[in-house]
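pasting for ref
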Amino acid sequence: MGLPRMIKLASYKRFEYTPRHYDPDKEELDARVRQIKQELGYEMKGSHKTTLKRGSFRQTRQQTKTKANRATNIRLVVILALLFIIAYLIFFA
């Protein structure tokens, strides 16, 4: 006997909270261990982490474009030099 509802009622939204425990002693110990490892040369600074910075994708794209442009320009110069050498041999030899 239920009629179809024309208005959709809002459902309950649940709040999920997972508490985290901060241990300053452990943080200090980890920092000291990391510093000692770095001093002894066991761990290179930043070797295992990559950071994303604002504009890093744009910078990478520009670097690849300049490398591609440089390679294209070198290829063009080599082809033109070969054509001039061939033309010189054909016309003046």
